[in-house]
């Protein structure tokens, strides 16, 4: 019996070691899984932040483009001449200036200053330029569509011409075969 008890205790000791090893491996696996889950969450969060930053970057680029257009307009000779005529009341040598007493006001019935009007005029000019560019792009797109349609129609017409020629060739071939057969019938 003592032999069986010894084997039983050795078996229990081995079983405890195996259970401890399994528990250790299970803890390691759980830790690895938790690490990957946390890493995946960080990646998702960083991707969201990246999208937000890219969107803000695009908005800032559009703002820069608008401001550059406004700067181009403001620094143009046309705008300077317009501003000098309206604000400084300057005229060319062959022109006469008429000054009327009414003042421009904004929606709050406050008198609008020259800088406010200049900014508004610049914005109006930028909007007009954008509208003009949009109209040009629409016209270009429409002309491209017309060109594509005309090319398709010309291709269709070419195909119709080929079909007509094939038909004519077949008809002329039938006429010749009828003449040949008619000549043979007449000879008989």
In brief, what are we looking at here?
With 188 residues, this protein is mostly helical. It has three helices and no strands. 0% of the residues are buried.
Word description of this protein:
The protein is elongated. By secondary structure, it is mainly alpha-helical. The longest helix is centred in the C-terminal third of the chain and has 74 residues, at 114-187. The protein contains three helices and no strands.
Note the beta-strand portion: under 5%
Number of helices: 3
Instruction: Kindly report the average pLDDT value.
Output: 77
Shape: elongated
Radius of gyration: 44 Å
Can you give the helix content as a percent range?
over 70%
The SSE order reads HHH
What is the count of β-strands? Answer: 0
Distance between the termini: 129 Å
Which spans have pLDDT < 50 for at least 5 consecutive residues? 176-188
Main pleated sheet: none
Structural class: mainly alpha
Keywords:
188 residues, mainly alpha, elongated
Topology at a glance:
Elements: H1 2-74, H2 77-87, H3 114-187
């Amino acid at each position: 019996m003592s032999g069986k008890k010894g084997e039983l205790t050795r078996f229990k000791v081995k079983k405890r070691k195996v259970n401890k090893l399994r528990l250790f491996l299970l803890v390691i696996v759980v830790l690895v899984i938790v690490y990957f889950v946390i890493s995946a969450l960080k990646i998702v969060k960083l991707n969201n932040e990246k999208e937000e930053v890219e969107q803000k970057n695009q908005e800032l680029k559009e703002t820069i483009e608008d401001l550059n257009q406004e700067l181009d307009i403001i620094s143009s000779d046309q705008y300077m001449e317009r501003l000098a005529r309206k604000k400084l009341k300057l005229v060319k040598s062959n022109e006469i200036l008429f000054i009327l007493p009414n003042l421009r006001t904004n929606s709050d019935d406050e008198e609008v200053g020259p800088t406010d009007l200049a900014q508004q005029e610049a914005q109006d000019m930028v909007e007009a330029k954008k509208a003009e560019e949009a109209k040009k792009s629409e016209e270009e797109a429409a002309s491209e569509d017309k060109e594509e349609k005309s090319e398709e129609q010309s291709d269709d017409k070419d195909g119709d011409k080929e079909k007509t020629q094939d038909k004519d060739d077949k008809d002329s071939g039938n006429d010749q075969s009828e003449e040949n057969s008619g000549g043979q019938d007449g000879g008989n």
